[in-house]
Amino acid sequence: MDPSSSVWQPYTLGKLPLPHRLAMAPMTRNRANADGTPGVHATQYYAQRASLGLVITEGVQPSEDGQGYLNTPGIHTPEQIAGWKPIAEAVHDNGGYLFLQLMHAGRISHPDNTPHHRPPVAPSAISAEQDMITPTGPQKTPVPRELSTAEIRTVIDEFRRAAAGAIAAGADGVEIHAANGYLLHQFLSPNANERTDAYGGSVENRARFVIEVAQAIAQEIGGDRTGIRISPAFPLGGLDEGDTEAVRAQYRYLVEQLADLGLVYLHVHHLGDDDLLRSLRQTWPTAVLVVRYGREREQIAADIDAGLADIAPLGRFALANPDIVQRLRTGAALNEVDPSTLYGGGTSGYTDYPTLSPA
């Protein structure tokens, strides 16, 4: 990559001086322990990628109800908080900053995958009809239990306490996961949210839960430590947010409201509506991160150059190349991802991808 590329310009994210415009995107790896503590190799995995500057972790559940998949980590018990401390220290020691992505899976879950084996929770009792890997093999996600208004307030408090736990573990901030078909995204989507109370029905009501979660976390740890991820029109987890104009109306309203909270960044998992992305960029007062599926190496700086983004998070490039920053700077060839090792397992496909020089 050209040494004069916009990617190599330093950037200050809130109070964090980043050396460039790259970051590590959040990626589920399913290698946590059964009790939700990070797996034994997680410290090495994240430390290897600290040169990306901003390291956003895999989704971390804020409660037992928040777990969707097998072997995902949490941040709601003292043991889990303690388990993240050496990871934060290792990322810092290697020159990076750590944000934990707070992810409540909502209806994208199965009772067999959670510690309590209760039905999953969601805005409405509508199954996602998705295949879910469980200890006994693939099963369909069941019909979830609709959260009561009082329970919604409890979930908001779980997010708040999880954010406090992340800071107690030494993380530099958190990313609220309001994307990719999970609980907050489910509240935004009309085909998953058929509520008739203050949390459903209108654009404003469907956005209310996401806004209240963001408010609670920003009040707890500070807006300068709080980012949020959205994925307008992404049909993951069985969601259908309507036609283009419906999606634009929902997300323009949501982002306008979030913009008043002083959050440190907006992370857009972008499907391709550049007109919407451009309007969100104009509305948002701080950093915008944009990640796109299928982006090629030579396209990494494109959204920054177009004024649509400030930071370009890397997913599979970062997963398969612990030294991706060095490789991009020098023009070196990139390792390819091994799809068979993406989820679960040990060091293979996790911490053993080759680097240009010995660690």
TrEMBL record:
This is Alkene reductase. Residues 7-334 form the NADH:flavin oxidoreductase/NADH oxidase N-terminal domain. It comes from Kineosporia mesophila. PANTHER family: NADH OXIDOREDUCTASE-RELATED, NADPH DEHYDROGENASE 2-RELATED. SUPFAM superfamilies: FMN-linked oxidoreductases. CDD domains: OYE_like_FMN. It comes from the Bacteria. Pfam families: Oxidored_FMN.
